[in-house]
Design a protein that fits this description.
single chain, alpha/beta, 2 domains, 8-stranded parallel β-barrel, 19 helices, 48% helix, globular
């Protein structure tokens, strides 16, 4: 039996090779994966033209995935440097990479990325419109926006972010809102500018049926973008954010009816006491669609450390139902991340995802922690390094400070609690001098 998309296959009770691959990674029966794809609680972004893809699942009962943002900009137009980041992100087992290139002719980088990377590839076609079309934003037509969407889909992008919750009415209301940061979404701000300049409805809304046709043709998953995500904790969970989320829930339903997979993007900057409510609201009104969150960042006063503020929020978000975490680097709000920034962001996001998986009781998530605990008790340093999310830093620390007693460290030496207890349990003398 033929099918057009992963969702179409699931509705027809077909288990695809991508579903089998996801099931093997998650240690879940493939039929369960198919059922969850059918109900819309799991998506498998898998563009037909992404031939190097090693499919991943995002959603209910699956391990929390992380995304790495990359791409060229006007101030840092260096495809070689970005491809080096891609290679490192793949080596560090990032499940997804988003190409956020926003200047000039971006297709060369996108094609290299898709050809090389086995992870899910996402993009935001809105960023590419001015460069691809060589036109000022206000002069772009609705049909030309579709051309850019189709080019990204044809190139092999597995999921695209489109902002179809931002309506003309909301844009008008935004002019009078007391929000501090108004719109912090780059794509959302561009659409807002186009709508105000042309006094028209969001072109991605008026052309949404055509967008869905493109997505079905190539099997592109929609990441329904939060143009009105809060950009500071003051703006969190306000009426604009919630109204947009309601709109996105309706757009996700329309996508489902056209056999197009969809996930929902979420905040943003959110105080720690509001994170659980945000997860519950999305899962409730969006029919348990996979939730993709940026952070959330829990305080606004830590530039240079936003990989930490984000990891705090992401840990809670993942534990309460978020399925997909967009990494945040120490360079957030400051500059294009370099390679070291990217590594720190990936590690912080992986920690947060793992913390969430333990809380969600994902099968096997806690086993690695138990193995680490056993290695610590046995003072098995090589095993500890092997199990660490990042093995380089702990190895470096140990090499920089060599203990006299090789089975301990320079913090405790002979007074190491594990060493002492092991000697007692083994009937050995505890000699501390």
């Amino acid at each position: 039996m033929e099918y057009t998309t992963q969702l179409d296959a699931a509705k027809k009770k077909i288990i695809t090779k991508e579903m089998i691959s996801v099931a093997e990674k998650e240690n879940i029966d493939a039929e369960i994966i198919r059922q969850r794809v059918e109900e819309g609680s799991v998506v498998i972004p898998a563009n037909k033209n992404h031939t190097s893809l090693d499919a991943q699942g995002v959603g209910k009962g699956l391990k929390t995935k992380i995304n790495v943002n990359l791409g060229i900009s006007k101030d840092c137009y260096n495809i070689e440097a970005e491809m080096q980041k891609v290679k490192v992100a793949v080596e560090m087992d990032a499940e997804a990479i988003m190409d956020l290139s926003n200047y000039g002719k971006t297709r060369k980088f996108r094609e290299e990325l898709i050809d090389f990377a086995p992870c899910m590839i996402g993009s935001v076609p809105m960023y590419d419109c001015v460069g691809m079309l060589d036109k000022e934003l206000k002069d772009i037509t609705e049909e030309e926006f579709l051309q850019v969407v189709e080019q990204h889909a044809k190139d092999g992008v597995d999921f695209i972010t489109i902002h179809v919750g931002l309506t003309k009415d909301i844009a008008q209301h935004l002019k009078t809102t007391d929000r501090i940061t108004k719109i912090v979404s780059r794509g959302g701000s561009l659409l807002f500018a186009w709508m105000i300049a042309n006094n028209k409805e969001n072109p991605l809304i008026t052309k949404y049926d055509e967008v869905l046709e493109i997505c079905e043709k190539y099997d592109v998953t929609l990441s329904l973008g939060d143009a009105l995500r809060p950009g500071c904790i003051n703006d969190a969970t306000d009426d604009l954010q919630i109204q947009e989320l309601i709109n996105l829930s309706r757009m996700a339903k329309r996508a489902y009816e056209k056999n197009v997979q969809a996930m929902i993007e979420g905040p943003g900057h959110v105080p720690i006491d509001q994170i659980e409510a945000n997860m519950t609201i999305e899962k409730t009104i969006c029919n348990n669609a996979p939730f993709y969150v940026l952070g959330p960042i829990v305080t606004d006063i830590a530039p240079g450390y936003d990989h930490i503020t984000s990891a705090i929020g992401a840990s809670i978000a993942a534990s309460k139902g978020a399925d997909f975490i967009c990494y945040v680097t120490p360079a957030e709000h400051l500059r294009l991340p370099d390679l070291d920034d990217m590594k720190e962001g990936i590690i912080a996001a992986k920690i947060a995802a793992h913390v969430g998986d333990i809380a969600k009781k994902i099968p096997g998530a806690k086993q690695r922690d138990d193995d680490m605990s056993k290695a610590r008790f046995n003072l098995d340093w090589e095993k500890m390094f092997e199990l660490a999310i990042d093995s380089e830093k702990p190895k470096k620390y140990r090499e920089e400070s060599t203990p006299i007693e090789q089975d301990s460290c320079t913090m405790c030496g002979k007074m190491c609690s594990m060493r002492t207890v092991k000697k007692v349990l083994n009937g050995e003398d505890v000699n501390l001098i």
